[in-house]
Amino acid sequence: MSKLVVPGEIVAKGNFRSWVNVLKKGEEYLSLFVGRAEISGGRVRVIRLSGPYIPKVGDFVIGVVTDVQPLAATLDINSYVNGYILANAFFKRRIDPSKFDLSNKVNIGDLVAARVKKIERGKDIVLQPDQKWKVEGDAIFYISPAKAHYLYASRSRIPSKIKELTGAELRLGANGIVVVKGDLKKIEMVKRALDVIESTYNLNGLYNEIIKVLNKDGKSADN
Amino acid sequence: MENQLIINGKRSDGRGPTDLRPLKIDVGIIKNAAGSSYIEHGKNKIIVAIYGPKDSHRYGMNLEKATLRCRYHMSPFSTEERKNPQPSRREIEISKVIRDALEPSLILENFPKTMIDIFVEVLQSDGGSRSASITAASVALADAGIPMKDLVEAVAVGKVNGTLVVDLNDIEDKEGEADMPVAFMLNENKITLLQMDGKMTVEEFKAGLMMAMEAAKKIKEIQKEALLKKYSHDENKK
Fold first, then answer.
1. Which one of A76, B34, B103, B217 has the fewest CB atoms closer than 10 angstroms to its CB?
2. Hey, what domains does chain A have and what are their CATH numbers?
3. Hey, what domains does chain B have and what are their CATH numbers?
4. Residue A50: is its pLDDT beyond 50?
């Protein structure tokens, strides 16, 4: 059972092996965010319910290419920082920029799936393109990065359930960018499911709430 | 002759010396902002919006942490007589004071080379607008998901007709002998703002500080309720 907490509120007292999004002060653990506090197995954490996407090494993200230079492409990853993909990473080998043109691979406006490889000087985010890095879809949505990161990090069943119930192809980045492939009806259903995610702060009940909304949608569409 | 603002222990608006004016906070009222809040404290009506963290310009960029910027502005219609919309000396000072009062509560090191903007717009002004702005801005920052050690709450304490009073209204602010806005981080047991206009004895200062701290505890509860109201609204629907 999780409890809603605000910044500065005492989440737990005692000794814990690990803590996330809390500040340890003596034996007290204080929340740093508005979020849901969870205590289990010697671990205390607060799942934040708002805020920007904070990149972590290993995260799977979807970015929009905003600039292409001979040696790297810049991506908007829905965060306070940009992501960079080096040309070498696209060609999977060292390249001579005078002989290879990166704009043959990616262009401004393209959607790229990648993993966070390195965070340099706290701000420069180096990305490694995914094996299927080119993301194609019919619609793009943005959901709260805090919730997207929760869905991603907790290996939630929610994205696969949305795929199953809507029949749409879905790619969800930990940064809150969702790309949907499918016809208009499927896109509308996905949008409704994402609206539920956006408007619900009770993360425990999210799965059932989405099933309820999508089942209702499916029935009304059949009628 | 001095104005009699306290008669039979009651202040001009009927409050006792330690009573707060009615206080209401709403969270998340501006969808375009990363975080926002609206506060009604007495006759003060103030909107606060947070934008960022976002890419910082080279000028003013801090390599170690986010740069906090604040703009406190009074709307031309916020006072009885039209106020010139240009930022006045007082508004520039209050912008700095709000920023300085909030900065100790924030963990800005998580966002190097970025900036966070706090916009404070006073729609209707009464006494204690800087305190109300700090209280509302702290809630808006929490709504924006900026990591913070504690919420900051501010209140003014002052001396009116020789009596210490909490949460001064406009007339007490202007006619009273002293006015002392204080901002607290109660869990951390820290004071992040302390200003004084007028004169108090050391004993009065100490007693005033304790009164302010008691009032800040009540304000903190209202801040907390406002945040919980937004983030638990879907549970209340059921």
1. B217
2. 3-48 (2.40.50.100), 60-135 (2.40.50.140), 139-222 (3.30.1370.10)
3. 17-237 (3.30.230.70)
4. yes
